[in-house]
Amino acid sequence: MVAPITHSRSAVIAMLTFSAATQGWWFTKTKWWEVAALLLITFTLFRPGFWWDMVYPAKHEMPGTLIVDAADKLAIGELSNCKCQVKT
After folding, report:
1. Which of 4, 31, 38, 60: disulfide with 21, CB 3.0–4.6 Å?
2. pTM value > 0.85
3. Beta carbons within 10 angstroms of residue 67's beta carbon
4. C-beta separation of 21 from 30 below 8 A
């Protein structure tokens, strides 16, 4: 679990990079490609899960008949989130 102070730091850094990108100044006047890079960095800091979800899917879909097999693979005391959807 990430400490709340880490979230606050990344949010402050993201706000600073966003303001630098929109105003066109960092330490000196920024070039167009630096503005694009700052906006990409800002987006990454505000929503890191966007990139992480491309590498590692957030959810695993499986048929309901395999729920027992999935539960058997869990360690004792390990929690799992399960969302069931009925399709008719």
Report:
1. 38
2. no
3. 13
4. yes
